[in-house]
Amino acid sequence: MELLSNRPLHASVPDKYVFPPEKRAALLHDAPSSDVALPVVDLQRAYLSDAGRRRLVAEEIIKAGKEFGFFQVVNHGVAEDAVRAFRKASAEFFAMPAEEKLPYCSDDQSKPFRVASSTSYDRNQTRYWRDYLKLRCHPVSDELVGHWPAKPESFRSSLAEFSAQVHELAQTLLLLIAEGLGLDEGFFAGDLSGGDTQMNVNYYPPCPDPSVTLGLLPHCDRHLLTVLSQGDVAGLQASYRGRWLLVRPVPGAFVINFGHQMEIVTNGVLASVEHRALTNSAVARMSVATLIMPKMDCRIGPAPDMVSEENPAKFREFVFREFMAAYDTAAANREDVLEYFRIEQH
Length: 346
Description:
Blueprint (H helix, E strand, L loop, with lengths): L39 E3 L8 H18 L1 E5 L5 H16 L2 H4 L11 E5 L13 E8 L3 H6 L7 H27 L15 E8 L11 E4 L5 E5 L6 E5 L2 E4 L7 E5 L1 H6 L9 E3 L7 E8 L6 E2 L17 E2 H10 L4 H6 L7
Parallel strand pairs: 1-2
Antiparallel strand pairs: 2-10, 3-4, 4-5, 5-12, 6-11, 7-10, 7-12, 8-9, 8-11, 13-14
Keywords: Iron, Metal-binding, Oxidoreductase
Family: Belongs to the iron/ascorbate-dependent oxidoreductase family.
Protein name: Fe2OG dioxygenase domain-containing protein
């Protein structure tokens, strides 16, 4: 397997990474919106026992979710040391010699840890300017840790600490979302968020000509909730009112967005929003996405409290395993995958 990170310098963009003009970043929709910024939610109040303050934070999250499908959180309880340590270990992994990464290279999506390049959805044969680690990270067990790489030396311990803290943040967010929607506080607990937590560590090396390629295709996430450490290099764009909004890095923040399952269980109130990744020519960019997943046999459909005469059920009930298969068939295309589960309205 050819990894972009195995080459220290790219003098030009190889043909297989060059997109046709109509698919290139500069020509998709309008120019990136520069006058709108994602809401930044301060979670510090949410950790307090004062119900009134917590309610304000919950309402702020729902407002941001309805408007953008994305928001950033600060004072989130994840230690900056834990974030830095795992990002450093991940960067060191990508910088290792090719032969040390080779044993982990695989396109087998069932592996609990693997390294690959581009994406499994490059069906048109054009490749994306991205290497990535895809791994299971929670719940942590000795068996799971044994699948993680032993090099660099700090990788396993820093991943275990980082994933535990991010998982706790995700559960806090789900409690607040439930409260903000008027659902039972335990609505998202159990099977709906109890699947194996996945993580994607995305590495985008400097690109000689970012105007002809993309780091990652426009897509919506298939799961429930994403907690993203973007770092200090911009590159993530979210679709907003027909334009692409650059998600500007906020020091110490996590970017939060909703997956398809959140849209379905809230009956469209909190929508999953398309997003993509750009490259740049100056520096490498690395993002760490933690993906909160339902269990494979979890039955999913609109929550009864989110369905009414004015807002009838938009989606049929299904098992999450069925959704995963449909997502792959649709090659991550938002409308194509949702069409499998949408109820026709009369």
